[in-house]
Design goal:
Layout: H1 18-28, H2 35-54, H3 58-81, H4 87-112, H5 116-143, H6 167-191, H7 203-209, H8 214-226, H9 233-240, H10 242-254
Helix pairs in contact: 1-3, 2-3, 2-4, 3-8, 4-5, 4-6, 5-6, 5-9
Length: 257
């Protein structure tokens, strides 16, 4: 099952590793490996990137961040190949993402000795950017005639476990997800309450929005690291958030129902 139908697919700039992710999923599909195993691998990849950052191997750290992004896509692809969608995988993926984002930025803060408040502001900025991307993308997916339905526009009720997963695991991960994401979800929702009432999310807009996807964010970090511009990363993502208002303004002004 694809996230979107063929007619609805757009150029997702944050999804540059999809072709490699599909190959990885096909490779794992012939093994007992589950999507959760791949999620654990992307977590390990992110931690390795942080260790390399501390040791000053910036280019190598950037490569592991890109690997993390590819594996982040591979777990979902494996779930689709094996036809085993799960809320466990959906929430574990998101929980790992936000924890790794914090660890990565904290590591940059440690390496550069920049103010802690700057790191926190950059972390909030990255999360709000990603939340806006996910907010509009999930709305589009829910409106799609075919696609992944495990993600919901509004995460309020504990979902019922799907075949092959345990309810207590889904409940625990769901509550953990809410703990980490509720604040960012509420901020974005308040900025654009009526987005779910619109049925206009053209491909050009979604492609522009994908500049805020986590994969593209990690690519930016990797590029800055490869040029030795580690000191630029935190301030860059703070100012990069200015686009949130621009994108919401476009949606409200030109993409009404």
């Amino acid at each position: 099952m694809s996230k979107l139908s063929a007619e609805e697919k757009f150029i997702d700039l944050s999804d540059y590793g999809r072709s490699v992710a599909i190959k990885i999923a096909q490779l794992f599909s012939k093994t007992p490996a589950t999507p959760v195993h791949v999620t654990l691998l992307f977590g390990i990849s992110g931690l390795i990137a942080c260790l390399l950052l501390i040791q000053g191997y910036y280019t190598a750290a950037g490569l592991f961040l890109i690997l993390k992004s590819i594996l982040d896509a591979a777990d979902g692809e494996l779930a689709r190949v094996k036809q085993t969608p799960s809320y466990t995988g959906r929430y574990l993926d998101s929980v790992f993402d936000i924890i790794l984002n914090f660890i990565i930025l904290f590591t940059i803060h440690q390496v550069t000795n920049q103010p802690f408040w700057m790191m926190l502001l950059a972390f909030a900025a990255i999360q709000l950017q990603g939340t806006l991307y996910n907010y509009y993308y999930v709305i589009l997916r829910q409106q799609s005639s075919s696609g992944d339905k495990t993600s919901r526009v509004f995460e309020t009720d504990i979902p019922s476990a799907l075949p092959g997963e345990k309810q207590w695991t889904v409940t625990l991960l769901f509550k953990t997800y809410l703990f980490f994401y509720t604040l960012f979800d509420r901020i974005i929702y308040r900025l654009d309450r009526k987005a779910s009432e619109s049925n206009r999310f053209p491909k050009w807009f979604m492609s522009l929005l994908s500049l805020y996807g986590l994969g593209f964010q990690l690519l930016i970090i990797a590029i800055l690291l490869s040029f030795g511009l580690v000191h630029w990363i935190l301030p860059f993502f703070i100012w990069y958030s200015a686009g949130i208002i621009i994108l919401i303004g476009i949606r409200k002004t030109f993409l009404k129902e």
